[in-house]
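Protein in question filed below.

…
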Amino acid sequence: MIAVILGIIQGLTEFLPVSSSGHLVLAQHFFGLKEPEVFFDVVLHLGTLTAICLVFWPEIQSLVVEVIKLPRILTGRDALTVAWRERPYFRLLVLIIAGSVPTGFIGFIFKDFLESLFASTLAVGLALLITGLVLILTRLVKAGTKKITGFRVVDALLIGLAQGLAITPGVSRSGSTISTGLFLGLDRELAAKYSFLLSIPAILGALLLQFDGIAASSFSFSGLILGFMAAAVSGWFAIVILLKIVRRGNLYYFAYYCWLIGLLTLGLHLFGLSG
């Protein structure tokens, strides 16, 4: 049962802009749950990665085709410029690579420091309030008109920077990246789609780092499978729901929820209930 609960929390909060870390802090208090061990955490992240692949499989296939063609494009005369201008999925591939650079840099250099803030319910609560502020500001932004042809590398770098900063517990990855895309004038659906596709290399990179400290799991094999399935199914559900909400321009709805969770987390800190 604990594996299923953790899987559902991971799947929903990994993609909905409400911060998985803030919910984990509350789960630890109200349900007596501890932060998942490394191997089980890897299993849950594989579940959420599976959810992304299920929803965006056609786009992923097209990106893989561009990767296969990349050597020929790089060696052809003027082929790179032509591909950037005329091949939408090649452009998307380049933008995902560009966005992954600041994320990887921040993750490699500041990961330990940012994740150490998890122990501070004060830091998590404040970060949740900031996440809510960022989300509410999207209400003031007019619907963007930038399609893939107007999506610049500098836009990708800024969104990647937002993703990197979202390593901070209490800051929502999807909330910060989608919001940044909207602030930059991206079409709503493109902003959401890019956010999810950009998360793939980030999740894979995090998994590679976690394998350094991986150990045998105390969860049974059936527990691992149930956790994986719960994360995959709830993750798929979260992605589908969030895509619909972003298309309608209602991302700011989650601001109120983030503020509520943030205030609850601060309450745990103020009244000494988080330990």
Observations:
- The chain has a mean pLDDT of 87.
- Residues 2-29+37-213+220-270 form one domain.
